[in-house]
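Box 3.1 A note on notation
Throughout this textbook, protein chains are presented in two layers. The first layer is the amino acid sequence; the second is a C-alpha cell string describing backbone geometry. Keep the layers aligned when reading.
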Amino acid sequence: MKEMLQIFEQAEQLYTLAEIDQVLEQLAKKLTQQYADDNPVILCVMNGSVMTTGHLLPKLAFPLELDYIHATRYGEKTVGGDLVWQSEPMIDLANRTVILIEDIYDQGVTLMALRAFCEKAGAKTVVCLALVEKLHDNKVGQIPEFIGMTVPDRYVFGFGMDYQGYWRNAPGIYAVAGS
C-alpha cells in the first residue's frame, strides 16, 4: 500500500475533475447533435470507462440503452499483451447505432477488436468516444470519432484508468512520475 500511496503523491496531475467535466459536456453536445434520434446503444468498455460513462450519461438528454463490453490487454499489468475477452454485451446490436465509450485511446488494438465485434454482431454504425488520446505514433486501426483530451506518452491513471489495478478512483487524470 505504501508504494501505491507514493505513486499518487508523486504523480503529476494533468487534468482536474472540473476540466474533465467541461470536456464531457462538450462531447455530450456533439453526441446529442449526431445521435439523439438514432436510439443508440452505449457500450461502456470495462473497467476503465466506468467513470467516463457514469459522468457522461446524465449529460445525454435522449433515449438510449446502456450495456457494457469487457476485453482487455492489460489486466493489472502496465504493458499490453494478448486480448482477453471477459464479457460481451447482452443487448442485441443488430441494426443499431453503437457508441463505444473508451477511457483511453493508446495503441488502438483493443478498440479495433471491439469495433470488429460490434460490426460482426450486425451494428449499422459503430463509433467510439475516447476521453483521452495518448500522443505517440504507435497506433493501429481507426481513430475514435470523438476524443476529449490528449495526454503525453506517459503512464496515466485516474478517472477510471488504473495503475496496477489501483487509483481508478483518483480525482482527475495523473501521470506517473518518471514515466
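The mean pLDDT is 93. The chain is about 25% helix and 30% strand.
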